[in-house]
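Continuing from the previous page of notes. For each protein in this section, the sequence appears first, followed by its structure tokens. Read the first protein now.
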Amino acid sequence: MYKDELVLHYLPLVRMVADRLSLRLPRSVEHDDLMSAGIFGLFKSVEAFDPDKNARFETYCRLRVRGAMIDFLRQVDWIPREARNRGSRLHEAIAELRDKLDRDPTDLELAR
């Protein structure tokens, strides 16, 4: 009974975390999918929380919920993380050279 009340009480926290995380994601990621993953994280945090560790439940729960959402996103992502990191570094290099040169960099300039 106590655990059910905790879950009901912290459902708005799951929505808040999903809302914030979805701001940084493409529109193709469904908000409901994030919510579902977050609710599983909430269940797990209710089960695993240890009050003797001097941590606030809300803080612990927020981390577990966000982690569950990120784990879900990694599961459904078809592009490996390293490929995404390389793409981000490439975009940063292009932007940096564009600012420095006041034009689009050539492939050779970018390669250097």
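Done with the first. The second protein uses the same format. Note its length before scrolling.
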Amino acid sequence: MDRGAWYLVGPLVGMVIVGLLWATNRPLGALGGYVDVQAWARKPTERIGWRAFFLGGVVLGGLVASLVAGGPHPTFSYELHGITGLAPQSALLITAGVLMGYGGRTAGGCTSGHGLSGSALASPASWVA
């Protein structure tokens, strides 16, 4: 499966970001979907936000792309300083995920939100993050 050409995909992503900002007055970012799902899980009577569906689409899109490419092939190829074995590699990935989540919440957004939307809008918080 080939990637889209940068000169096509870049402007399309830019149009999505501008359109989303115009329609919802919210920046594009994956962490917002996670926050929406987490809030809904705490209070299921509330209506789930559109960002949760965006996050679900990212996950589902990745799964569909892997199936089209011949199926998912999960591996533990994240080796750091000779760490091998299922348990140590799993612990490494879980720890990294927790730290990334904590960092994203502390920074007020994830790299997609700050990098794509916030930086383009010249947000000082995004430039610092």
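What the second structure shows: The mean pLDDT is 83. The helical segments are 6-24, 30-42, 50-68, 86-106, 111-118, 124-128. We return to this in next week's lecture.
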